[in-house]
Amino acid sequence: MSDADLTRLLMLSGDRIVDSAGEELARIVRPRWSLKKLFSRTQEEIRLVRPDGTVLLSLPEQTDSGIRSLWMRNADGARVGLVERRGRMGLTGGTLNVSDATGQAMGTIATDSAYQSFTARDPQGEEVAAAMLGGQTWTMRLHRELPDTWQAVFLAVVVAAEEIQAMAPKNFA
């Protein structure tokens, strides 16, 4: 069996996530900016919405230049997973710990220091997903048998990284 048989390719460009055939799987819906929002204490969420309008997942809007702690929720508002940075980010990158809603460890995600590439591994150390930013487009490879929770967490990390890139492009030149 070839590597192509084991992986599913996705791309994130702008606000669309599409598969290798170009079919839209989800659209990113970002909070609207307003003066009122500047004085609000509530944090707005970024949503991934399927083409039929149903919410796939939501995550908090990124307000920092890195991922320290990131949770994501399903359409019902229940937490799906949590990603937390392990230790400090070094010059070559760092590691994000991934757990499900119950706190059960699902694995890790290694990242470079600019949040432009990710490699996800299960608890046994097997690679289950990878993503890389090339120009303005993210290319993602997900193992075909990757559980839905892992897929949601990995997509949320890539969307968060996309938000970080857009928020401070001068930091990633």
Structural summary, described in words:
The protein is an alpha+beta fold and 173 residues long. The protein has helices at 3-6, 35-38, 148-167; strands at 7-13, 16-19, 24-29, 45-49, 55-60, 69-73, 79-90, 93-100, 105-111, 117-121, 127-134, 137-143. A twelve-stranded antiparallel beta sheet has the order 5-4-3-2-1-12-11-10-9-8-7-6.
How does the major sheet shape up? 12 strands, antiparallel
Mean pLDDT: 83
Distance between the termini: 39 Å
Distinct helical segment count: 3
**Global shape:** globular
Task: Tell me the helix content.
Answer: 10-25%
Sequence of strands across the biggest β-sheet = 5-4-3-2-1-12-11-10-9-8-7-6
Question: What ranges have pLDDT less than 50 throughout 5 or more consecutive residues?
Answer: none
Order of helices and strands: HEEEHEEEEEEEEEH
**Number of E-type strands:** 12
